[in-house]
Here is the input.
Amino acid sequence: MSLTVRGQPRPVPEGEALAVYRVVQESLTNIRKHAGPAVTAAVSLEFAGEELVIRVTDDGRGAVISDRVVSVPDGWGHGLTGMRERVELYGGSVRTGPRAGGGFEVAARLPLALEPA
Here is the structure.
C-alpha cells in the first residue's frame, strides 16, 4: 500500500477528519475482503483549494456489475452507503466504481474552510 499527500496540508475539523478516516478505513477493508490476493492499494489525499480529495484505489479483481449497479460479491454490509452518508453530512460527495483496466476506486470530496472555525 502507498500513501500520497498533495497540496498544502492544513488542519481538518474533527468531524470531517473522522469522515476521511472512515472512508479510508472502509475502502481498505473492502480491498482486503474483495480485491483478491497480491493486490496493490494506493491512498491519496489532495488538499486542493477549498476541498480535500480522498482517493483509494486498487488493482484487484474489481466489483461485480449487474445492470450497471456495482455490488460486492458477497452482498454483506453497507460500507459504501455509510461512507457516502457520512461524507454528504459535511457537504461532500463520494464516487465509487470499477477502474478501467481492472481494480476499484473510491473517490471522495470534502469541502474545507480556508480558515479553521
Summary: The chain is about 25% helix and 35% strand. The radius of gyration is 14 Å.
